[in-house]
Specification:
about 325 residues, alpha/beta, D-Maltodextrin-Binding Protein, domain 2, about 20% strand
Length: about 325
């Protein structure tokens, strides 16, 4: 009888433990009504950048639409790591959201086509492609290849070059030690234009310019200001060589744990934050440029025709290594 009682007590104890464990999966949305789901969003920029403003808007919308049952923690300044770190974090579910761009080309080559300088002549051409059938095709390919879900595309404005000397022509960039992100499409194109590209992590750029390890860098105007690049560079050339995006991306592992209502909240908040951030870029880019000029930045406006002609010599050969069919589809969209 003692043995029977001991066995029954042991079975009751095991059952209690298992029951407790089965109700602890709040990430799936199946927990009690008082459970709060906390999700992390990382980016590499400072709190002064428009990315951070957009991230705060996303947080606000998620928490409002979920009545506080979902909380978004914002981690700026590469505190969750660089772009590659955050991308890999999303793959294993340790990072829930990130603002990332070119690094996705390491997982799915087709997105690298968007990184080709002078692929687009205007913001309108860029919008037509990215927010259309081609953009959705690329997002689907990225998801299949990496388990990273592109919720939407955020505008960053065109990329321009800052440097230690004025740039007025293609001749002025011959041999120029220009920092680029680690994106092959940009490296081969800038090499074709005659520059000497150097890849470098963003958090090393300010010091690299200050110490003359590099002579120039290129980025959208709000990003230049957010990174305080105008403190260590005297000149800005309005080259508009690439119309720029950053994705609001999400771990598909996290997405798969959400219920349908939570997924709808996340996507709706992402779309609202996208409209908000894109509006900020359109409204504030000129204001930010004027502010940097007032602080001493000198601006040149080179004729970019020769820049574009040189850059496009590299396009087709690069596209052959990535996805020539998709490249041709983009060109057809632009005709």
């Amino acid at each position: 009888m003692k043995k029977i009682i001991s066995l029954l007590t042991f079975m009751l104890l095991i059952g209690t433990v298992l029951a407790g464990c089965s109700g602890d999966d709040s990430a799936s949305g199946d927990g009690g009504s008082d459970d709060k789901l906390v999700l992390k969003l990382g980016h590499i920029q400072s709190e002064n950048d428009l990315w951070h403003d957009g991230a705060l808007k996303f947080k606000e919308e998620v928490e409002k639409l979920s009545d506080g049952s979902i909380e978004v923690e914002i981690h700026p300044n590469s505190t969750l790591g660089g772009d590659r770190d955050m991308a890999e974090g999303m793959q294993i579910g340790t990072v829930d959201f990130a603002l990332i761009a070119g690094v996705l080309g390491n997982f799915e080559k087709s997105i690298q086509l968007l990184e080709l300088p002078y692929l687009f002549n205007s913001q309108e051409e860029y919008d037509k492609v990215v927010h259309g059938e081609v953009g959705q095709e690329i997002a689907d390919k990225v998801l299949d290849a990496s388990d990273i879900r592109i919720l939407n595309w955020w505008d960053r404005g065109p990329r321009h070059v800052t440097s230690n000397k004025p740039i007025n022509s293609l001749e002025d960039i011959q041999g120029l030690k220009i920092r680029l992100p680690e994106i092959k499409a940009m490296e081969v194109t800038w090499s074709e234009m005659g520059a000497a590209p150097t890849t470098m992590a963003w958090n090393e750029v300010y010091t690299g310019l200050e110490q003359n390890v590099i002579e120039a860098q290129e980025n959208p105007i709000p990003f230049i200001y957010g990174g305080r690049i105008h403190e260590v560079q005297d000149y800005l050339a309005l080259t508009a060589h690439k119309y720029e995006y950053v994705t609001l991306a999400m771990s598909d592992m996290t997405w798969s744990k959400l219920n349908d209502e939570q997924k709808e909240i996340i996507q709706k908040a992402a779309d609202t934050a996208t409209e908000y951030e894109n509006g900020l870029v359109a409204e504030q880019t000129d204001e930010i440029l004027e502010k940097m000029k007032s602080e001493g930045l000198q601006v040149t406006e080179p004729d970019t025709t020769e820049f574009a002609e040189a850059a496009r010599k590299a396009h087709k050969d690069f596209a052959e290594t990535v996805d020539i069919d998709l490249y041709n589809k983009i060109i057809q969209e632009l005709e």
